[in-house]
Structures are given as C-alpha cells and as structure tokens.
Amino acid sequence: MSVRLKLTLSYAGFIMLSGALLLVVVWVFLLRYVPDHDMSQVSVGFIPNRSDLERAFVPNAAMALVFLLMFGLVGGWILAGRMLAPLARITHATRIAATGSLSHRIQLPGRADEFRELADAFDTMLARLEAHVAEQQRFAANASHDLRTPLATTRALLDVARNDPDHNTAELLERLHTVNTRAIELTEALLLLSRADQRSFTRENIDLSLLAEEAVEMLLPLAEKRGLTIEVSGDIAPVLGSPVLLLQLTTNLVHNAIVHNLPAEGTVWISTAATPGVVRLAVENTGERLSPELVSTLTEPFLRGTERIHNDHAGVGLGLAIVASITRAHEGTLSLTPRTDGGLRIEVRLPVAAPPADHSPL
Q1: Rounded to an integer, what distance in angstroms lies between the CA atom of residue 70 and that of residue 62?
Q2: How do residues 62-95 score in pLDDT, each as one tens digit?
Q3: DSSP category for residue 353
Q4: Are strands 344-351 and 333-338 parallel, antiparallel or unpaired?
C-alpha cells in the first residue's frame, strides 16, 4: 500500500475507534441504568424502557458509524494528499537530479516544518553537487590541456630532430628533459591531489612548526636567488595528520609566497600558533595588490595568480588546490586574504592534537 493509503486508513480507523468508544460510553454511563421492565401501565404516559431505547439507538448508531467511516476515508485521503504534497515535490526533484540535471531546486514554500527542512537540505546538497561536478569538469579540462601541452611539445621537438639531423642534440635533450620534468611534476601533483581527496593516509602526531622550518630550509636557496627575506616565528603547533601531506602543504604555501612576490627585496612571513582546539599556520608575502574576487579563485586547479607564469619555478597550477585539499582531508579550514599593502595572507586552521595519554606506572 502507498503511504497515502496507509494514512487514509489510519485516519478512518481512528475516527471509527473514536465513534465506537463514544457509543460504549453512552451504553456504559446511560443506557445500562435505564430499567428494562414494562412501563406501559404507568399513568403519566409512555416511558421507553431499555429495549425501546436500544431499538431506536442501535440502527442510528450503525448509520453514524458508516457515515464516520466514509467521512474518515474521504477526509483522510484528502488530508493525506495535502500532507504528502511536499514529499511528492521532493520525489520529483530527486528524479530530475537522477537524470543528471542538478540545477533544479525544490524551493518549498510554507512554514519551517520537517518537510521544509528536508527540502532545504536537499537543495543544499544539490547546490554542492552541482558546484562539485562543475569543479571536476573544469579540473578534467584543465588537466587534459596541461598534460597535452608537454606531450605535444615533445612530439614537436622529435619531429624537428627527425627532419633536421644536424640539429644541436645537446640543446634538444635539454629541452626534452625540461618538458619531461614538467610532465612528471604535473602527474605527481595530480596523484597527490587525488590521494588527499581520498584521505587514504595514516595519521601521526606532528609539530607543524617543525614542518614549516623544514619547508623554509628546503626553499631558502630559491628565496635568496630572488632576493627575498623569510621570517619564521611561532610556537609549537601539535596536529594529528600525515607528515608527508602536511609537509607538502607547508612547502606549497612557502613556495607560492616566494614565487608570487616582488621582483626584489620582498618578504615572506611564516608563523604558527596553538590556541585551545585550533592550530594556526599563517604565511604572508609582499607582492602585487590582489582583488578579493581574484583571491577567491586561487584555490581552483591550474590557476596561477593574475596570469599563467612560465618560468622555472611557476609550478603546475595545483599548489593552492593541493593545500585546500589537504586542509579539508585534515578537517581544517583555509582562508586567503589580500593584504592592503600588496601580497597575500594565507591561514590554515587545523584541529589541535590531543596530548598523548600518560601510561607511566603510579
């Protein structure tokens, strides 16, 4: 049976039960106290006894119960239909979404009841799915383009070498090595991004401040080559997560702050802090003034600031996308804020790691 039919029968059954109980009450508290002996000899006129009242009451009571049954069925069917109308709209929207159309919304009107909460939650889910699918489509298109570029470049270099046997072999090998290195970096970045999204890693207790120092030590030659100053400060920042992924996170943040900086005499500030329940890693840098609209798109894959930068340290356009994915995988939040003097402030907030249990003997 459908839910509507079940509700209809429930309404009708409840009305019938109420009517039957009312008749029982009439019998128990009224009719059983009426005497059943012959009242025809009473001089004051005709006085009905219990049998007379039963003959008059029972047929009418039966008709009333039949009426209540019909009324309960018809009224219950109408009421159930009105109550289940929002559910029908939600079902219709679900079927539309199942066909691949995620732009449809229920937008259920009326008061905030259980159906309204369900419809609003479903609309929110559809919005997130639509945004996720659109992001995946953009990602796939960009990844295909960026992977196709080094392959096409390699083929062009090989065609040149085939058509010109006297071409400089050393120069050709160097260019092929550069293109191949870029393709490997892009593939590794895609694998790392997929690994972070799947959250397939083992968690350990880590001090995020030590990872920040390790990332700075690794990238210090690049900063010195560009004439930049790096300042590191902060407290111990204990977190629970993957050492490899969190090191990649800090490295990407520091690398991004170095590459997207002033041409010379720029500065990068790195700080860590631990507050109750939250660990913060902040990376700031000098640089060009950025609009909030541009900053809001920097975590999308294959976006490299205001334009695509082509140099030895430009990366593959997945740096901040990987940072965002690793942050989500560790139940954290990521915020990007443009600095008023130019440059960018990026802050990662992660749950603080619980202190290890003390198992020492008393």
Answers
A1: 13
A2: 787 888 788 888 888 888 887 778 888 888 888 8
A3: P
A4: antiparallel
